[in-house]
Each structure stands twice: as C-alpha cells, then as structure tokens.
C-alpha cells in the first residue's frame, strides 16, 4: 500500500487548473494506457482493449472485472468506468460502461455541464496464432447545458493485431468508423507497435489521427517495467510516457504505479500538461481476476 500512497501524493501535488481536452476518444481510456502515453494499441488486453484496440483481447487468457475512477481538475471532470472481460473462450469479449461528467467554463464565462454515457460489447477472434481481429459496438448518449436535443446513437470500432513474435506486435484500430455521426464521437484511426526486449520491460509507440474536423494527430510512447515480488505471487509495474497533440499544441508527461497479484490488481496514474496549458488528470482502477491461464509473452502487460 505504500506504493499506492506514494502515487496518490504525487497526483495531488500535480493538480492544477486549465482548459480540458475532452472527447470520447480520450475519456474512455484507463490508467495503464494513459501512463505510457496512450501507446498500447500493439497489445491491448482486458479493459484496455475497449478504448484502444478490441482485437487484442485474445492475447491473454483470463476473466477480469474492472472498475475505475478519474478526476480532471481543469473542468471538475469525473470519469467512471466498469467492465467485465472474458478471454478464456474461443471468442473473447467485454461488456463495458463509461461515464464522463464535466463542468467547464463556457465561452461567455458562464459555467456549463455535460454528461456522456457509453455502453457496449467488444468481441474478438484469433484468425491464426499471429493475427487477431476485433470489433466493438457501443451506444452513446451525450447531453450538455444549452442543448435543445441530446445527442445519442450507435457506433462501431474495429481493429486488428499482428503478433510477429513474442518480442514485437503491431495493432491498428478505427474508431466510430460506422454508425451515428457526432462531434463528441469523431471518426479516427490509430496504430501502434509494442516491443518487449526482455520479459520485464516493454516499450510502445502509438499515433492516432482524426478523420474529420481538424484532422489532428495525437502521438506518444512510453515504457513499462515489471518488478516481481520476492514470493513470485505479486508484481509492481512502473510506467512512464509522453504524449503530444498537434491540434491542441499540447504536450503531456505521465507516470503510473501498480500492484498485481493472482486475485486482484491496482493501477494509479497521473498525467500533467507541460505545454499549451496545465491540465492534470488523475485516474485509478482496480481489477478482480477469475480463472487465469499463462501467457508468457505478455506477463506484466495485462
């Protein structure tokens, strides 16, 4: 628990006030992917696959329930997530729900409030031991102060992962590719590579491009090192990353700590904007595991 307390103290020190960078592409991400610069499309598993790349679900074999909460001081934003993922069968899948509520200051200086609800199902399939495909369908409902009519509809994400070896894998995903058109749920594509030179260390780099509006790019990368406990039953992942958004002219640094055991896992991440503003996000999650089967090439990535 000292590790969690240290991470919480770090997050509190970083809190500041700034304009929020908020949309569905960012608000559905969890602490693990945010900690490494939003760079896990090359090997997304469990709840990480929901927002990054649904095709990665078969990369491990486990039943996991996860809940998370994030706070963004710049717009008093609360990010809540819950998921249940099962990758122990022939067609791995996740049920998921995400909520984002924010109260930013409007252009006229008056406070506003917005809420977003997203729920859906992600499914994936292993075509060969090296090629995986996946898709997710989600229903969204967005409402904000001053809107005469709430925005809602159904959208689809698709993705593929190619695992060249136990060391290198590549992933590509499309977001909101088909379905309702919405400003809050823009169409976008992303891709990334993850390399594991040694079992304890992973390095990743990703990029994501919007296909409408400003067609901006968001790219980043990071490292994760997995320390094993003395008894071999527990592990402690340490993560760090950098992210840049050329549409916002913003650069962020991030860091995260974790605790992983046979039965549960805890992850805590803080991200700070160092260019183009001073936005800060703190996000944490807790996982509870059911049956888990060994996946040596992915131990520590979860």
So what's the CATH class? Mainly Beta
Low-confidence stretches are 1-21, 295-302
Helix content: under 10%
In spatial order, strands of the major sheet run 1-2-3-4-5-6-7-8-9-10-11-12-13-14
Distance between the termini: 20 Å
What radius of gyration results from the CA coordinates? 18 Å
Q: Please report the number of helical segments.
A: 4
CATH fold-level name = Porin
User: What's the average pLDDT?
Assistant: 87
The assigned CATH architecture is: Beta Barrel
Number of strands: 14
Quick recap of the structure?
The chain has helices spanning 2-14, 24-27, 31-35, 48-51, and strands at residues 61-72, 77-86, 93-102, 114-128, 131-144, 151-163, 168-179, 188-198, 201-210, 217-228, 235-245, 250-260, 264-275, 280-293. The protein has 302 residues and is mostly beta strands.
Structure keywords:
single chain; 302 residues; mainly beta; Porin; 14-stranded antiparallel β-barrel; 55% strand; disordered N terminus; disordered C terminus
Overview of the molecule:
The protein is mainly beta. The protein has a single domain, classed as Porin, CATH 2.40.160.40. Helices cover 9% and strands 55% of the residues. A hairpin with a 4-residue loop joins strand 13 and strand 14. It is globular, with a radius of gyration of 18 Å. The two termini are 20 Å apart. The N terminus and C terminus are likely disordered.
């Amino acid at each position: 628990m000292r590790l969690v307390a240290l991470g919480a103290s770090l997050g509190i020190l970083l809190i500041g006030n700034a304009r929020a960078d908020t949309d569905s592409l960012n608000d559905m991400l969890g602490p693990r992917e945010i900690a490494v610069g939003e760079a896990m499309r090359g090997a997304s598993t469990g709840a990480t696959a929901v927002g990054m790349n649904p095709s990665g679900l078969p990369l491990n074999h486990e039943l996991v329930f996860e809940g998370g909460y994030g706070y963004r001081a710049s717009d008093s934003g609360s990010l809540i997530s819950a998921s249940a993922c099962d990758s122990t069968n022939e067609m791995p899948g996740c049920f998921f729900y995400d909520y984002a509520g924010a109260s930013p200051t409007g252009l006229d200086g008056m406070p506003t409030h917005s809420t977003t609800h997203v729920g859906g199902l992600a499914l994936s399939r292993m075509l060969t031991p090296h090629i995986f495909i996946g898709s997710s369908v989600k229903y969204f409902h967005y409402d904000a102060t001053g809107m005469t009519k709430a925005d809602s509809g159904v959208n689809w994400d698709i993705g593929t992962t190619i695992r060249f070896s136990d060391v290198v894998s590549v992933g590509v995903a499309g977001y909101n590719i088909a379905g309702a058109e919405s400003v809050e749920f823009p169409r976008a594509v992303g891709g990334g590579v993850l390399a594991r030179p040694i079992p304890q260390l992973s390095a990743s780099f990703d990029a994501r491009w919007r296909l409408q509006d400003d067609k901006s790019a968001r790219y980043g990368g990071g490292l994760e090192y997995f320390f094993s406990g003395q008894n071999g039953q527990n592990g402690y992942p340490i993560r760090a990353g950098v992210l840049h958004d050329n549409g916002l002219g913003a650069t962020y640094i991030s860091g995260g700590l974790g605790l992983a055991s046979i039965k549960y896992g805890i992850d805590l991440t803080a991200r700070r904007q160092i260019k183009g503003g001073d936005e800060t996000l703190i996000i944490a999650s807790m996982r509870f595991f059911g049956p888990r089967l060994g996946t040596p090439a992915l131990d520590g990535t979860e």
